[in-house]
């Protein structure tokens, strides 16, 4: 028997544990569950349907704080700490969800199905445009969602500013899971839409309104 023949068992003993370890690692990664996907949305039936009607309103630009520019759902853990969930993520950019809920809310409040995102979807002259700056948007399951925002209403697509407002909306989370948290976040965004619609109505009348701060 040659020296090479004697070396084979040792080589096999060295390689097999490495192969088994690799298989275990791959198997462990394969068993990780897929994350839960969430979207911001309002209940069905809230949008205005039928032929084009109501004022033409453009939403944009919409700006978000950098901590929200991620797929993970962000929750609040104390005054100075945030947590990014690893198993609960947005199914789309959170800005898209916020814009959709705002569009539905504005349309319902103004009786319009001509609310669009600008500049991507504006194909006709606008009666109004609203620029929105989201400054805080987070909460905790079983706790409270806080949405802080400022917005400016412009007459026409490129007209002068008619009014600027800021407000903080606090929405109770009716449950201890992420589904309840996302539902409360959608409700808070809908309330922002209601406040913007009130501002557009007031600007159209040449009057000023001050949006309310809190609602349980």
Structural commentary:
By secondary structure, the chain is α/β, with parallel strands linked by helices. The chain folds into 2 domains: 1-32; 36-205, Rossmann fold. The chain is 34% helix and 29% strand. The chain is built from 3 helices and 8 strands. It has helices spanning 3-30, 94-110, 178-205; strands at residues 36-38, 57-63, 72-76, 82-90, 115-117, 128-138, 144-155, 161-172. The strands form 2 sheets. Strands 5-2-6-7-8 form a 5-stranded mixed β-sheet, covered by helices on one side. A 3-stranded mixed β-sheet has the order 1-4-3, covered by helices on one side. Helix 2 (94-110) crosses helix 3 (178-205). The model is unreliable at 1-8 and 212-216 (pLDDT under 50).
Offer a concise description of the structure.
The protein has helices at residues 3-30, 94-110, 178-205, and strands at 36-38, 57-63, 72-76, 82-90, 115-117, 128-138, 144-155, 161-172. The chain is α/β, with parallel strands linked by helices and 216 residues long. It is globular.
- When the domains are counted, the total is 2
Coarse structural class: alpha/beta
Spans of at least 5 consecutive residues with low confidence: 1-8, 212-216
Order of helices and strands: HEEEEHEEEEH
Number of strands: 8
CATH fold field value of the largest domain: Rossmann fold
What is the CA-CA span between the terminal residues? 85 Å
- Which sheet architecture does the biggest sheet show? 5 strands, mixed
Radius of gyration: 26 Å
- Second-tier CATH architecture of the largest domain: 3-Layer(aba) Sandwich
Report the β-strand fraction as a percent range. 25-35%
Shape: globular
The CATH homologous superfamily of the largest domain: ABC-type transport auxiliary lipoprotein component
Q: Tell me roughly what share of residues is in helical segments.
A: 25-40%
Question: Regarding CATH, which class of the largest domain?
Answer: Alpha Beta
Number of helices: 3
Q: Please state the average pLDDT score.
A: 84
Strand order of the largest sheet: 5-2-6-7-8
